[in-house]
């Protein structure tokens, strides 16, 4: 498996699958190296992970996507650990993410050491759980 920064050539793959971001922001996130592409082998995309910054200073994982046939095989765990290591290398001491209370992802994040840090509720949406993890040196 290969994890690397997404390139402009990955745009079509991402735009067809990521319906949670404004289309015009994908190019910007690619240019800022805020999207990782996951490949089974060269030129064979199987997923992506994108992040941003909470309060403009704390890395916040916004989305992980792994194509269905590759789920449950440790791909998500590998990309999260890869991202955490990258964030540690640039000096971050804390990372964040969130998931809805009705999603299984909360258990995945907790198994990787993320702790509940709060929640919020948007109208007509399930409760959103905020999770944090301290990065140890």
UniProtKB/TrEMBL annotation:
Name of the protein in question: GNAT family N-acetyltransferase
Pfam families cross-referenced by the UniProt entry: Acetyltransf_1
Domain (N-acetyltransferase): residue spans on this chain: 1-136
UniProt xrefs under InterPro entries: Acyl_CoA_acyltransferase, GNAT_dom, N-acetyltransferase_domain
Origin superkingdom: Bacteria
Gene3D superfamilies reported for this sequence: 3.40.630.30
